[in-house]
Design a protein that fits this description.
Elements (H helix, E strand, L loop, with lengths): L9 H26 L2 E7 L4 H8 L3 E8 L6 H15 L6 E3 L21
Parallel strand pairs: 1-2, 2-3
Length: 118
C-alpha cells in the first residue's frame, strides 16, 4: 500500500473544493449585486458620513433625502443636505424638508443649552 501524498488527501481535496466554490460565489455574486440595487430614502436630521457612504455605494440607489427638525431647524437641515449633495456631485437626488414643529403640534422643540449657564 503506497502512502497518500499530502496534496491528494481527502482533506486537501475537500478544502480545495470549498475554496473553488467560495471564489465562484464571490465572482458570481458581484454581478448579481450590481443588477439588484437596494432603493432607499434617507430620512435623517443631518448630512454626514452615513449619507455620503450610501450615496457612493454601488449596490444602493438613493431615491431622495428628507430632513426634519432635530439637531437644528428643518431649513438648516435641508440646506446642509443640499450642500452635501452639491459637494458630492449628486444634485440629481431630490431633497424634501419636513415639518418644522413637534409631533404634538406645539411650537418648536426646545433644546437644552450646550453649556451650563454660569
Amino acid at each position: 500500500m503506497s502512502p497518500i501524498s499530502p496534496f491528494r488527501s481527502p482533506a486537501v481535496r475537500t478544502l480545495r473544493t470549498l475554496l473553488l466554490c467560495l471564489v465562484a460565489a464571490l465572482v458570481g455574486g458581484g454581478a448579481q449585486a450590481a443588477e439588484t440595487r437596494r432603493k432607499i430614502i434617507i430620512d435623517d436630521d443631518g448630512f454626514g458620513l452615513m449619507q455620503m457612504l450610501l450615496l457612493e455605494a454601488d449596490d444602493v440607489e438613493v431615491l431622495g433625502l428628507t430632513s426634519v427638525s432635530g439637531g437644528a431647524w428643518v431649513n438648516r437641515e435641508t440646506a446642509a443636505a443640499l450642500r452635501g449633495l452639491e459637494i458630492l456631485g449628486r444634485t440629481d437626488v431630490p431633497v424634501i424638508g419636513g415639518v418644522d414643529e413637534a409631533v404634538g403640534g406645539t411650537d418648536r422643540p426646545e433644546h437644552p443649552p450646550l453649556s451650563p449657564p454660569g
